[in-house]
């Protein structure tokens, strides 16, 4: 058992960096913010853009997706696309573009907040179901 653990550790690629980005679904281009972030580590920009756009084509174009990219020392990478932030859902449900410049003065209705919480709980349930391994 201990030998398998050592073997796994030796087989892992050395990580160069972990990069976090927010990119609109289906709109990744080698321009900022993607280009400078990945170009600094000499990663293949076009490979990322094509793969990201393919993975997110089913979402609306204006939906910001959180991306966690792991860059390895051999210039390869892996990335995970996550759901938009809760604040984006809240602003979308309230029908506003930006948050209030004066906190406590411009408020949204409680029904909008409750709807967003239901969406976020649904997202957590879907994630839990996809990671749960049930016996047949």
Automatic annotation (TrEMBL):
HAMAP family tied to this protein: Ribosomal_uL11 (MF_00736)
Domain Large ribosomal subunit protein uL11 N-terminal: 19-77
Protein name according to UniProt: Large ribosomal subunit protein uL11m
One example GO MF annotation: structural constituent of ribosome
Domain spans labelled Large ribosomal subunit protein uL11 C-terminal: 82-107
UniProt keywords, alphabetically: Ribonucleoprotein, Ribosomal protein
Any GO CC annotation of this UniProt entry: large ribosomal subunit
Similarity field: Belongs to the universal ribosomal protein uL11 family.
InterPro entries attached to this UniProt entry: Ribosomal_uL11 (IPR000911), Ribosomal_uL11_C (IPR020783), Ribosomal_uL11_C_sf (IPR036769), Ribosomal_uL11_N (IPR020784), Ribosomal_uL11_N_sf (IPR036796)
Species of provenance: Eleusine coracana subsp. coracana
BP term (GO), one: translation
Pfam family, one: Ribosomal_L11_N
């Amino acid at each position: 058992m201990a030998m398998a653990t050592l073997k796994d550790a030796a087989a892992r690629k050395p990580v160069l960096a972990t990069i976090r980005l927010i990119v609109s679904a289906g709109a990744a281009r080698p321009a900022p913010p993607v280009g400078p972030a990945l170009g600094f580590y000499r990663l293949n920009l076009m490979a990322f853009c094509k793969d990201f756009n393919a993975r997110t084509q089913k979402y609306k174009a204006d939906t910001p997706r959180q991306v966690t990219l792991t860059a390895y020392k051999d210039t390869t990478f892996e990335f995970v696309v996550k759901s938009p932030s809760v604040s984006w859902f809240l602003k979308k449900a309230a029908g506003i573009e930006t948050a209030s410049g004066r906190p406590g003065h411009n408020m949204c209705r409680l029904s909008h907040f409750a709807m967003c919480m239901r969406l976020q709980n649904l997202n957590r349930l879907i994630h839990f179901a996809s990671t749960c391994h049930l016996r047949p």
